[in-house]
Amino acid sequence: MIPSLASRHSWFEATARKRIAGLLDPGSFTEILPPAASTPSPHLAKLDLPGAFDDGIVIGCGQLEKQPIFIAAQEGQFIGGAVGEIHGAKLVGLLKRAVREKPAAVLLLIDSGGVRLHEANAGLIAISEIMRAVLATRAAGVPVLALIGGSCGAFGGMGIVAKLCSAILISEEGRLALSGPEVIETVAGVEEFDSKDRALVWRVTGGKHRYLMGDCAMLVEDDVSAFRAAATAFLADWQEPAPSVGLLRATQRQLENRLTAYGAYRDGLQIWAALGVTNPESVPLLDRDSLVALKEGLPT
Amino acid sequence: MKLNDILDALFPAGHTVRVANQVITGVAQTAQGTVAVLGTTDAAAIDHAMALALSGYILDTLEQHPGRPLVFLVDTCGQALSRSQELLCLNGSLAHLAQCVDLARRQGHPSLSLVTANAVSGGFLSFGLMADRCYALADAQVRVMDLKAMARVTKIAHERLLELAISSPIFAPGAENYRRMGGIEAIWERPSAGLLEAALGQGARADERTEDRRIALGAERGGRNLAAAILQTVDSALAAA
């Protein structure tokens, strides 16, 4: 059911705290290291930049349909949700706790451009620690879900982290990639990637494309309660598999086949046509339900 | 330093290594027996094909040679920058590679990486930083971005960044900065069979090898002091799920 416009709360526009409040059971969230108990990044202060008490990430525990959940939400409005030393350590700490306490799931509300350049080395090492901690959490049998639909998307190291999760739930507004279009344009030229061409950026990195390609498990309306419903539905059906060569072999084959089939393409339109979409130009105009129906009807 | 000279210095007892599309795969002999040797050369910009060549070789090793140590040679300028690469979700292939390195650890394959020349952002994250331990040659370049580009993006004067870089390891390029922060275990003056074998020998105890100790190491070395305290606080915070 699509909520009426009046009752919709855009995930894209919500703050990290609003997303958590709307996602979890009302009143169930307890923040770990709340702003009152924290200090802003001294590294930013050294550069005369304003810090944030939560360093751009909110972490804690709560419940989703009465199931115990660990949750982390990045605040895209603070330096693009980028990962610095404190920010990264909060997330690593939460995941380490999850290995021990085994909640029903960890939800990562990603809204980040990746490494925080002002703390570049600390950020890069922290992303590596997050990567290992996500896999350790999953290996302990705890699913880790990535939810993507904020203004910063999931880029750089956080794009890699997202793809290490059990699954990704993404909205049409969500974007997922490694290098940002601006970076590619700066280095390789505007002919390679015109970052001002919003429609093109979206056809390459946007939620619909990632969902059609199978890189994201679910496409979700840009609505906080839709994300809640999707996360609940996903977890109800999901049993975290033990890491194995067999699973990674299957992924390896799939990625190799995909590279052979689509490696020369440069636009989502080309891939969607090759996937069997009869009218690829219509994809950007489809609403969420029609797109999901289209994907389910595609030849496999 | 040429790849062959590095290989000769690391593996005087012999190595059979193939390089294709800047991807290194092969085996070498050490005092601890045969090891798998893999990685990238000539400042490779990691793309789907390279990532999948590496992950495929790791999976072959896991299937055919249980327990065989993995030695990664890292020389990458980062990830390939192109629209077609992003169209196929490059972060997904890099994540797959990282997952293969992680699975090797879980299945009892000790691993180490050696940065031979360049280690930059996404390329470094996908395998070099995923090994049990990461080492770097003294003249290796390790970074997210060079200071000039960083000045442009952050809109902070280059001179100011240069000045701050002297006292803080937090953002300026350099293997030594990564060592002080715990991301790099040790710096080697030159590639050496003795250092390699000592490093491989360190992986004897499985719990030592599999535990990610980089935050603690960064605190011990005084290069990264906040993370350890945050970890401790999060760990002991009263919050019940």
Low-confidence stretches of chain A: none
SS content category of chain B: alpha/beta
CATH topology-level name of the domain at 5-176 and 216-243 in chain A:
2-enoyl-CoA Hydratase, Chain A, domain 1
**Morphology of chain B:** globular
CATH superfamily of the domain at 3-138 and 189-210 in chain B: 2-enoyl-CoA Hydratase, Chain A, domain 1
Q: How helix-rich are the residues of chain B, as a percent range?
A: 40-55%
Average pLDDT across residues of chain A?
A: 96
What share of the residues of chain A does DSSP label as strand, in percent?
Answer: 5-15%
CATH C-level class of the domain at 3-138 and 189-210 in chain B? Alpha Beta
The number of helical elements of chain A comes to 12
Radius of gyration of chain A over alpha carbons? 19 Å
The CATH architecture category of the domain at 5-176 and 216-243 in chain A equals: Alpha-Beta Complex
Distance separating the two termini of chain A? 27 Å
Can you write the helix and strand succession of chain A as a string? HEHEEHEHEHEHHHEHHHH
- Listing every helix as H and every strand as E from the N terminus to the C terminus, the arrangement of chain B reads HEEEEHEHHEHEEHHHEHHHH
Question: Largest inter-chain interface?
Answer: A-B, 94 and 75 residues
Number of strands of chain B: 9
SS-derived structural category of chain A: alpha/beta
CATH architecture of the domain at 3-138 and 189-210 in chain B: Alpha-Beta Complex
Tally of separate helices of chain B: 12
Helix/strand layout:
The complex is a heterodimer of chains A (300) and B (241).
Chain A: H1 16-23, E1 30-32, H2 42-46, E2 57-64, E3 67-74, H3 85-101, E4 105-110, H4 120-139, E5 144-148, H5 157-164, E6 167-171, H6 181-188, H7 198-205, H8 207-212, E7 218-220, H9 224-237, H10 245-262, H11 268-275, H12 288-296
Parallel strand pairs in A: 3-4, 4-5, 5-6, 6-7
Antiparallel strand pairs in A: 1-2, 2-3
Helix pairs in contact in A: 3-4, 4-5
Chain B: H1 3-10, E1 15-20, E2 23-30, E3 33-40, E4 44-46, H2 48-64, E5 70-79, H3 83-87, H4 90-106, E6 111-120, H5 121-126, E7 133-137, E8 141-143, H6 147-154, H7 158-167, H8 175-180, E9 186-188, H9 193-201, H10 206-210, H11 214-220, H12 226-236
Parallel strand pairs in B: 3-5, 4-5, 5-6, 6-7, 6-8, 7-9
Antiparallel strand pairs in B: 1-2, 2-3
